[in-house]
Amino acid sequence: MANLIPTLSGTGVALVTPFNSRMEIDEPALARLIDFVIEGGVEYIVTLGTTGETPVLSREEKVRIARFTIHAVNNRVPVVIGAGGSDTSEVIREIEELPTHGAVAILSSSPYYSKPSQEGIYQHYKAIATASPIPVLLYNVPSRTARNVDADTILRLAQLPNIAGIKEAGGDMAQCALVLRDRPSDFLVVSGDDALAFPQIATGMHGVISVAANSFPTVFSTMVRAALAGDLKRAKKLNDSLLDAYHLLFVENNPAGVKAALSELGIIYNYLRLPLVPLSNQYAEKLRAYTKNLIHLTAETMLN
Fold first, then answer.
1. CATH 3.20.20.70, domain 5-231, yes or no
2. Looking at residues 72-88, what average pLDDT do you find?
3. Cα 278 from Cα 281, distance rounded (Å)
4. Quick one: pLDDT at residue 143?
5. Which residue in 195, 181, 196, 129 sits closest to 151, CA to CA?
6. Buried residues in 87-101 as b, exposed as e (16+ CB within 10 A)
7. Where does the chain have alpha helices with state H?
8. Among the options 112, 125, 139, 246, which is catalytic?
9. Per the residue annotation, which of 44, 62, 125, 167 is the catalytic one?
10. Which of 82-96, 238-252, 288-302 has the lowest mean pLDDT?
11. Has 283 been annotated as catalytic?
12. Looking at the predicted structure, is the pLDDT value of residue 300 above 60?
């Protein structure tokens, strides 16, 4: 099994998908966003995650976005491609069409809505790992899938040769502790929850795949590096400055909050495809004020 810990430690950013006023993919805005987060210090990029509004993207759009992202990144940082769903065979077909030659791993969310048993989840991931030409990262996000991937299932899957790690967004610190204690030494474990990333890194996780790093890459990635280096005092100071962001970015839905922030920064337009809608005015005003204040604090004090 490939050891992705050296490659994917730190901050990965789950990119949004920018749209123009015709609700088409806005490639110039995506290029600006990629440059912004790389220059902001993230260690790698995740394309086609849930933050990228993948449920409303066609197969053709997904392939186009992945190809464009790999080209725009131009080997500056590693790229991970998202491919998940409830239909195991369909996920495998999607992976076959994606430009996996330009990526280091597939990030695959566990099946949603159908609520399979733990054995069903295991067999789903086993089939995907067998078919994928590159390593697979599990993604446990029960708030979206309605089914937790239990610690025993994660550890069982960690023994398969092409499953290299997990993005853990279950919020259960006891489960995280079990996985971190009993995982194979080369099994990557990263947080999938911005608000919990700091304490989870302090307990042994290798980093985070973040939403907030779209709009606040410098502060967020600096916080993660400080936590990984054991400088918890500095990491806490930086994380404290982001606490309001964690609330505002997710207060209504994701990615409405982060798209509002990125629009305020002039990087993308604030368009989402239905059934998602832009952040409501009351929260957009608060996020606008927060963003301006954080930029000032970053320039003046936070990173010194």
1. yes
2. 97
3. 9
4. 92
5. 181
6. ebeebeebbeebbbe
7. 5-8, 27-39, 59-73, 88-97, 118-131, 142-145, 151-157, 173-182, 194-202, 217-228, 232-250, 256-264, 281-297
8. 139
9. 167
10. 288-302
11. no
12. no
